[in-house]
Amino acid sequence: MVLTLHFCSVNEPMMQVIKRTFVTAGVVLAGSLLLSSCERGNVNAQTGAPDLSVTTEDGSGDDVNISTAVNTALMADPQLQHLDIQIETRKGDVKLWGQVETQAQREQAAMITAATSGVHSVNNQLEVK
């Protein structure tokens, strides 16, 4: 399909708006095509959160994606979503710190973190208020 547009008597500012609109539409279309061909990510069976981890060539998990996946899983849990839990990941080893309201929340956060793909170990330093 070829789309040909002819602009007659369009002033310069309007022409710039039209060009930007077509460029934006092209970028959105290209991004949509790229994303539609991506394989759907796995969902963690325990937490229901998307599995965002990526394995690198050396076998270690991608720390940023692991931290993101842990954060997403923790925020998906109704008991934990309102808490400010800090997450640090180094080569798949995740450290949690901050404050929780109950021991059950502390344990739930550790369990969800351990169940997240790419996590090798959990250092749970969450404190109960």
Task: Describe the fold and architecture.
It is a single chain. This protein has 129 residues and is of the alpha+beta class. It has a domain at 59-128: Histidine-containing Protein, Chain: A. 40% of the residues lie in helices and 17% in strands. It has 3 helices and 3 strands. The chain has helices spanning 12-36, 63-76, 103-115, and strands at residues 85-90, 93-100, 121-128. A 3-stranded mixed sheet has the order 1-2-3, with helices on one face. A hairpin with a 2-residue loop joins strand 1 and strand 2 (93-100). The termini are far apart.
Keywords:
Lipoprotein_DolP; Histidine-containing Protein, Chain: A; Hyperosmotically inducible protein; three-stranded mixed sheet; alpha+beta; elongated; BON_dom; 3 helices
Distance between the termini: 64 Å
Low-confidence stretches: 1-7, 37-41
What kind of sheet is the major sheet?
3 strands, mixed
Query: How many β-strand runs?
Result: 3
By oligomeric state, this entry counts as: single chain
CATH class label of the domain at 59-128: Alpha Beta
Portion in strands: 15-25%
The percent range for helix content is: 40-55%
Number of helices in the DSSP assignment: 3
Task: Work out the radius of gyration.
Answer: 22 Å
Based on the structure given, which CATH architecture of the domain at 59-128 is correct? Answer: 2-Layer Sandwich
* SSE string: HHEEHE
Provide the CATH topology of the domain at 59-128: Histidine-containing Protein, Chain: A
